[in-house]
Amino acid sequence: MNPENILEVKNLKVRFPIHGGIFLKKVAEVNAVDGVTLELKQGETLGLVGESGCGKSTVGKAIINILKFNSPDAIIEGEVLLKTDNGIIDLVKLSTSEMRKHRGSIQMIFQDPYSSLNSRLSVGQIIAEPMLYHTNMTKTERLEKVSWLLEKVGLNPDQSKRYPHEFSGGQRQRIGIARALATNPKIIIADEPVSALDVSIQAQVINLLQSLQKDFDLSLLFIAHDLSVVEYISSKIAVMYLGNIVELGKGADIYHNPIHPYTKALLSAVPLPDPNRKGKERVILKGDVPTPLNKPSGCGFRTRCPIARDECALKVPPLELKRDEQFAACPYTN
Q1: Among 39, 32, 40, residue whose Cα is nearest residue 16
Q2: Rounded-to-integer distance, Cα 132 and Cα 121, Å
Q3: CA–CA distances in Å: residue 3 to residues 68, 91, 105, 142, 180
Q4: CB contact at 8 A, 236 and 47
Q5: Cβ(308)–Cβ(299) under 8 Å?
Q6: CB under 8 Å to 47, separation ≥6 — which residues?
Q7: Quick one: three-class SS letters along the chain?
Q8: What does the pLDDT look like over 117-166, one tens digit per residue?
Q9: What gap in Å lies between CA 93 and CA 295, rounded to an integer?
Q10: Whole-model pTM?
């Protein structure tokens, strides 16, 4: 493991079996993630972007090791290496109980601020709950930290006795962020944290995350489907399509000089704020996104790619260095 990295994902694969028939036998598998490799440095923000259904949220859940709880039948392969004070731990190999001792250092902000908060608990109880299980803080210390965190995310500490239904979507997401920060984590996985919010609220939450990242020296894995949002917050961007990383590089390079045909198509779909300004040529992809249940052979993007060749069906193209720190999984681009 690179000593500069706090997290390394190596050849991560996630498959979900499908059962059918009278005896519910396994009839097929969904290859949700098909060999993803990522690196995250201390204090860095890595954006993971792609269309809905490409497997990016599954990557986040596999990293934090909650798939074993949510989907016990899921088959997870590869390595998720986390640097801890006691050495390097492979999170994939840990059971649910073994993972509990490491949950304090890696937390998640969920996509839906409405269903991710327990409606039966007050805001103070929601934020204090992780401290109860993952720290040795006293009740007084937990109450003090709840007030401090609420103030840190822009809410009034007096609101700690209120319940989630009394807050707006943006305020609920701030509560979710406060909960994620409660255990002083080193890494936060933000799974589309602004997709359910209004545009004006999105900007507030993103600015809040950037401010908190500096204050707490956090490493962020920011998952989203909007490239413009990801480019704003991320130092590096990984573009994902149908379970594979197709392009990886610095945020500015990916956004302004994309290499892979899929990245170019994604960027061409980003609306321009100025209606009178002429944008880049629109890339129209043919066909629909294939299902992970019946993924095309070789390059998963070949059935929609404007520069596809017969050879693209033979094998999955590896990520290759094309420019300075910019990788793309396409042998026919520069």
Answers
A1: 32
A2: 14
A3: 28, 18, 18, 33, 25
A4: yes
A5: yes
A6: 222, 223, 224, 230, 231, 233, 234, 236, 237, 238, 251
A7: CCCCEEEEEEEEEEEEEEEECCCCEEEEEEEEEEEEEEEEECCCEEEEECCCCCCHHHHHHHHCCCHHHHCCCCEEEEEEEEEECCEEEEHHHCCHHHHHHHCCCEEEECCCCCCCCCCCCCHHHHHHHHHHHHCCCCHHHHHHHHHHHHHHCCCCHHHHHCCHHHCCHHHHHHHHHHHHHCCCCCEEEEECCCCCCCHHHHHHHHHHHHHHHHHHCCEEEEEECCHHHHHHHCCEEEEEECCEEEEEEEHHHHHHCCCCHHHHHHHHCCCCCCCCCCCCCCCCCCCCCCCHHHCCCCCCCCCCCCCCCHHHHCCCCCCEEEECCEEECCCCCC
A8: 999 999 999 999 999 989 899 999 999 999 999 999 999 999 999 999 99
A9: 27
A10: 0.91
Q: Which two tokens stand for residue 125?
A: 């109880």
> What tokens appear for 241 in the block?
């399509």
| Token digits of residue 244 | 């594979």
